[in-house]
């Protein structure tokens, strides 16, 4: 239903450079789904990294995270989002042909926004909320 | 409990300084609600010495200033003027009461104005008639005419006469001594009076028995006051070098001899800061033999002990004796005054521990017998370690000084390095939940506490290190190992912090600390997570209260650790 809504809204057009062939909208949808999945996985991964670092902290000072440290962690997470999306884009013929470089950049920015939102929400919903607010 | 430390002479003053250092370091006198502490007790220092501005008095004054500063840093808001008070350590009245035995009652302006034995004993106050004819058979003329405002030159036979007059004057609350002591304020108040002085000196040897006898007789006549009178007598533990030149055998020095010697020796350390007239007087004193003679110290100490046995011991609830098998050799000669500024001796720390034992109301042995604890067989009194110091009792527990030093050093590291002071309190981990709760809505309190803890820690470092540092400018009689081992706990350099942090880090799987923190024979194992759980129950605690709780928990850990290892060995 959501997919149909997105398909009909013209939103998908934003993420592809050329849409002359039939099925290009499906490619755009797949590209968006890929960005969502990558953002989600990377957010989960970075939250797991933080949990592990806190769990394995051997002193109180190591265990205490400042807002600055948390923001640095989030920023570091942008890198795997970019790399994974780049690999997916380059290794998938349809993405390379139809999404193009412009679509790639828009997809990456979209994934980053999603990732940042997920990281922020993740902190808000956890006992770590004091480390970001 | 109210405590009065009566420092008699230069040695007694150095012991008072050692006592202040030990109290600042955290040495407890009792256990209160499961916490070893000295906070809540009070201490006054009385200084009985004609040499009001001796180097030892100046040094004591400096350490009292530091103690006051430390207590201010650890206090909440309330501070009584003149009283160094916090929940970290004993309240100390920083206004040392100077009891000058030469300040005696006067009937006329001419009474006691000349500060010589003759000038004092021949005074005619209070209906006392001229006494010079009676003095002549007991004293030589030079004894009667030497100025005694810089001490009694290790001549107890001079000091005893002056002290006896002074002790008598204390009965009068309006006399200079009576005003300084104001003993009326101690009536019906449980008080520990502890006297300390040397057995072999002039002021100490004469002042301790006479003051002890005076206080002891007051106590006997007023049993309900709950007073205790104790003393520590120091046997020869250091010997001064010979003076720059020797005494004349028989004849009286001529003015020309004095002038020549002033020219020759006037620039030497013992003469520094003196006016030309004072230099002449000092030369004359030396020529007449009024200086400490190292060869006679042992004999004088033996005579002093015999006097206690026969006449004085019964007035004391406890008598401690501290000394060294081989006295340390001082490098700088002085005949009193500001130049007599000897470094702190390890024997003086031992005497200060005796005072703590007495203040904690621990009884040693029973009144009918001597207790003769001696040092360990392998003790090198020139190079002592903390493990060589005697233990004392605080409540039911034995306090080992080495463990106290370790607990304070570890506390120093924990409070300054292992609390994440640089992040907002709301982000403190749950492992320091109580501190987080206290600070999260009061970030300014956290910032203020951090600043004051850091400043207090710097002062604690000074107290710890200058007490056992083998640097001859600071101390005599310590081996360097303990100071070297202690330093990493107190240091701010990255290497030391990493080393100690590594030992306090918890194991990956489990809560136990990775390594042991050691000092000499003492050790403990504590992780920063254990430390995080230690915080007073109420939110309104002071910095001193917090430090004392952490310190007491650390000492308890050391005691437990050492009991376990003793059990393993047996």
Task: Describe what you observe in this structure.
Chain A is mainly α. Chain A has helices at residues 2-9, 24-55, 60-63, 67-91, 93-124. Chain A is elongated, with a radius of gyration of 18 Å. With 570 residues, chain B is of the alpha/beta class. Helix content of chain B is 43%, strand content 12%. Chain B has 19 helices and 18 strands. Chain B has helices spanning 9-25, 55-74, 117-121, 132-135, 141-145, 156-169, 176-181, 203-221, 255-265, 276-287, 297-312, 346-359, 401-417, 433-439, 443-468, 481-490, 494-504, 528-532, 543-569, and strands spanning 2-8, 30-32, 35-37, 42-48, 83-84, 91-93, 97-99, 191-198, 227-234, 238-239, 318-322, 328-329, 344-345, 392-394, 397-399, 475-476, 517-519, 522-524. In chain B, the strands form 6 sheets. In chain B, strands 1, 4, 5, 6, 7, 8, 9 and 11 form an 8-stranded mixed β-sheet that branches. The longest helix of chain B is centred in the C-terminal third of the chain and has 27 residues, at 543-569. The mean pLDDT of chain B is 86. At the A-B interface, α3 of A face α18 of B.
List keywords for this structure.
heterodimer; A: about 130 residues; mainly alpha; 5 helices; B: about 575 residues; 8-stranded mixed sheet; two-stranded antiparallel sheet; about 10% strand
Distance between the termini of chain A: 35 Å
Overall pLDDT metric of chain A: 87
What's the alpha carbon Rg of chain A, rounded to whole Å?
18 Å
What is the SS-derived class of chain A? mainly alpha
**How much strand content do the residues of chain B show?**
5-15%
Overall 3D form of chain A: elongated
Tell me the Rg of chain B in angstroms. 26 Å
In percent, how much strand structure appears in the residues of chain A? under 5%
